[in-house]
Amino acid sequence: MVSKNVVIGVAGGIAAYKACHLVRYFTELGHYVRVVPTASALNFIGAATFEALSGNPVSTSVFDAVDEVRHVNIGKQADLIVIAPATADILARMVAGRADDLLTATYLVATCPVVVAPAMHTEMWHHPATRANVETLRERGVIVLEPAHGRLTGKDTGPGRLPEPEQIGVVALAALAGASFKRTLEGKKVVISAGGTQEDLDPVRFLGNRSSGRQGFALAEIAVHRGADVTLIAASTDSLPTPPGARLIRVGSAVEMHEAIQEESPDADIVIMAAAVADFRPEVAADVKLKKGKNADQLTQLQLVENPDILAGLVADKRADQIIMGFAAETGDAQHSVLEHAKAKLQRKGCDVLMCNEVGKGKVFGQATNMGWLLTKTGDVIEVSHGSKFEVAAQIWDVIEQVRE
Ligand code: CTP
Q: Shortest CA distance to 298 belongs to which of 200, 198, 196, 197?
């Protein structure tokens, strides 16, 4: 991995402590990190902490180390700037083009991707001034993340929390890798299913699969960044953080997922079935726990019935202007390669786009990375290069947007 110059800007908010984890995130990956806090940030976290974690000097003023011309050089040399947390004040100063401290001067000089993770009270986030500032920064190409929803400094809850450092980190790395965050999906309703369905055998047992839901969550997150109205229908993904800005509907079984998709898809512009839906479910789900002595027959001779094929239903009911995408998690066999299986599945399912990836032997399911091919109804086969599931999500969205055009 090539080491990059990463600048982490820290503004004065209670979430400043999370910036320490972000510094660690980038240094552990081997990047060269410079922390540039504002003077107020140092009320929350001391310069010594940032210096120790980054291994680099920390200053807030344009008048420190003037001989090094830091106020220009840090920004010029940066490959990526991440400002987390970003307060309402720093957003306003960035919009105004102020350069009265080292962070704003660094931002003004930089030409690299800039990712901003706002964290503030809900009222400040909703204030027309902040809304306008966010809009302006996005128009200027700054990647402004949505804040997470949850507990704020006091007893209040709402949108305004800083997303978890790793969530910010993966998005920033996708930006560094060249993923587009242009607001190309504004006004579009996107429905995405993710995770693996769980088919109950009894109150404690279920039939499940190894899908982690990460690819679907990454698709949702990139769609939010591109401005879409995103509904994520997820099964067994409790350990994944909800993509800020997306509406999450939790389901358990394939039948529940089917109902939620039927409810949400009619007015959607794009529907992506990234979930690993169980093809079969136990014919009967026992109300009480099955016992190995008494119910041995039920457990050894499991009767299964077929689940609805959600993707097939979506294709059957598809509006002419809708895009439906499916996934094909395949293993090759003696007769056919992974890609041959996928081409046959695209024919069978009739969706507009199919993402095919090879699974098994520790590949894809549960992993942070992915790769594969995107197959379109019109016969194109586009290779998706290896990358984080966020980088892959950005490539998938690029192709969906091309197909829409
Ligand atoms: N899918 C679905 N409903 C199902 C099964 C699958 O909507 N009951 C969707 C998945 O979300 C995925 C696509 O169909 O987008 C392909 O899923 P996969 O399990 O690979 O295909 P199957 O239809 O199960 O085909 P096969 O068993 O032949 O591999």
A: 200
Give the DSSP H/E element, type plus range, for residue 105. Answer: helix 102-109
**Exposure of 28 in the CB half-sphere (CA atoms within 13 A):** 8
pLDDT digits (tens, 9 = 90+) for 22-56: 999 999 999 999 999 999 999 999 999 999 999 99
Contact 192, 214 (CB under 8 A): no
Q: What SS3 class is residue 102?
A: helix
The β-bridge partners of 232 are 192, 248
The distance of Cα 59 from the centroid of its chain, to the nearest Å, equals 32
Cis peptide leading into 282, omega within 30 of 0?
A: no
Alpha-helix residue ranges (DSSP H) falling in 290-388: 296-300, 310-316, 338-349
283 in Cβ contact with 305 (< 8 Å): yes
Distance CA(132)–CA(147), nearest Å, equals 16
209 catalytic? Reply is yes
Compute φ and ψ for 241, nearest 5 degrees: -70, 140
404: nearest Cα among 349, 326, 323: 323
Relative to beta strand 5-10, strand 80-86 is parallel
Sign of CA dihedral 313, 316, 319, 323: positive
Q: Which two tokens stand for residue 356?
A: 């095919």
User: What are 50-77's pLDDT values in tens digits?
Assistant: 999 999 999 998 888 888 888 899 999 9
- Beta carbons of 99 and 62 less than 8 angstroms apart: yes
The dihedral formed by the CA atoms of 280, 283, 289 and 293, expressed in degrees to the nearest 10: -100
Q: What is the pLDDT of residues 369-396, one digit of tens each?
A: 888 999 999 999 999 999 999 999 999 9
d(CA 6, CA 48): 19
Ligand 1 binding pocket (C-beta < 6 A) is 254, 273, 275, 277, 279, 307, 309-311, 326-329
**Atom 26 of ligand 1, nearest CA residue:** 345
Q: Which amino acid is at 376?
A: T
Which residues are paired to 6 by β-bridges? Answer: 33, 80
**Catalytic-role residue among 209, 307, 357, 370:** 209
Residue nearest to atom 22 of ligand 1 (CA): 279
Report d(CA 207, CA 23) in Å as an integer. 40
